[in-house]
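Recap from last week: sequence in, structure out.
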Amino acid sequence: MSLPKNHHYVPQCYLNEFREEKKLICLDLSLVLIGLNVNLSYKAPKQVCYIENYYKIINENYFNLNDYEENYIELKAFSKLENEYRKVIRKIFESGELDIIDGKILSDFILNLKIRNPSYNKVIEHHKERNTEIAKNLLIEELINDYRYSAIPFSILKKQVDSFGERILKSSNFNKSLQFKQIIDNTDNNSTSIEKFRKEILDCKWYLLDSKNCEFSIVTSDNPGISVTDDGTLENMKFKGGFKFYFPLNSRYCLYFSDKEKDDFYSSNKKFSKKIYLKNLFNEELNLINFQQICYHNKFAFSTEESSLFSIKEQLLRK
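Predicted structure tokens:
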């Protein structure tokens, strides 16, 4: 069996929901943003949102990643979620509810989609100094409590840890190693990280926003999903402390949830189905959601309708 070479950071199972017959209608945002009045293009999902061998584990210097088979992420870390995704969203469309197993799959899929995106490296870089300090503090605590290092003076241990921190800050591949580590950690069904995100996402009341009465359809991008904070700031993946999160599911429906409205599904019962409430969108709200989807490190917008992308292009060119 030949191993996959084109590693999709937005999986085809997601993009397939935005196809017009077999093609995606695509708008190159990077060209529009420099003022070029570009034409739309038409591509199959397999032709977009990939980087050759991006998730291959080769000579990674951190987190013992080389203990994993080099194609572990592409072949194992993604496969279960991608195989189940379409089935889960069909349940939402058809029944308006999910059980706890399917709820976990969709919340895990959203988290995976955000972390696996190359733009996530920018998030890691932005917090690199803070994360390095956290890593140093954890390491020094671990060394102090390890009997093997009990005879070594604290000043020497701290000097070694500080040197380790400096190497991280200067490293060219630390960000990607951390991205890989987080992807792998979140495949562990019992990890504290995945449990935290599941609670934050699944305890919110979920809405299915319906654009059937709107002039345009719902648009997605090469970095799907956006958080909007209480002050209107756009964040890649903020799930606490005041947020609204919009996640396009197809050209008609967008999943929406906020920590302002809770049903405590994950914290309390888990035995019963999670109800998803249907809410109709109107033109002004849909236009805002579509525009927000393409504002965070995005290079492409995708839709099933040319008119929706023409509208976005005209707005960007005016700005």
